[in-house]
Design brief:
Elements (H helix, E strand, L loop, with lengths): L3 E5 L4 E6 L6 E4 L4 E3 L8 E3 L7 H25 L1
Antiparallel strand pairs: 1-2, 1-5, 2-3, 3-4
Length: about 80
């Protein structure tokens, strides 16, 4: 699963993060999460970090780093 930035069909940038829910992920900003992306976007596309505006990366960096660290820890436990 992609852990990182997504761009919605309306051009908004959010994060796709793993979650223990039926869809396996949430879309998130620095204040809210949307399980499975419901309620925030009908479509979205994964994008690389360098496609995201600097102000968005600064605002969401801590959320993304926490998720990537948790994912790396989970991989260590599984291997």
């Amino acid at each position: 699963m992609h852990v990182g930035y997504v761009r919605t069909g309306l051009g908004e940038f959010l994060l796709q993060l793993p979650a223990a829910n039926p869809w396996g992920f949430v879309l998130a900003d620095d204040e809210l999460t949307w399980p499975g992306g419901f309620g925030i976007a009908d479509t979205w596309t994964a994008v690389s970090d360098d496609e995201v505006p600097e102000d968005v990366r600064r605002r969401l960096h801590w959320v993304l780093e926490e998720a990537r660290e948790a994912e790396a820890e989970a991989e260590k436990v599984c291997s």
